Amino acid sequence: METKVEETLNLSYDDFEPFCKWTREEGHDKLEVHVQDFKMEHMSIQIQEPGVVTITGERPLDDTRWSRFRKQIRIPKDTKTNEIQANLSGDILHVVVPRKTPALPAKKSSTKTSTITASMASNYLFGLIKSAISRLEMNTMLALPVAGVLAVVVAFVAYAYKDCHCGDAES
Description:
InterPro entries: A-crystallin/Hsp20_dom, HSP20-like_chaperone. The chain is an alpha+beta fold.
């Protein structure tokens, strides 16, 4: 029978990058983090440095394997950090990030616009780019064998075409 120390030494972790979606709404921002099969007790949300929220989670897969993630999100300077709330609905962690109201109300325009700053969008875009690169790598692995087969087919057709036309020219 293994001791607790031996069990801890035999643990392995499956790290993953959860999909995140940032939306800006009136008075607050919302972050959706897709964390399949996680429970609230498996996760932690902390503000470790000004302007950065860190979300971590780890859960057991079996006796020696664990699934875990760590996501750091930059938040706007006008955030009420002491009022950030999170709840889990199904496999999606919803994080509500309230914004401070401006001292002087801004003029209301007739058109509603929603803007996302570059630092907020960068986390989302980084995830999309990482996903696209992964798909591109898989497509590249598939493209090489397809290109090889295509080269053989073209060579065969060229040989057959040459062989057929050379025979017609001699008769």
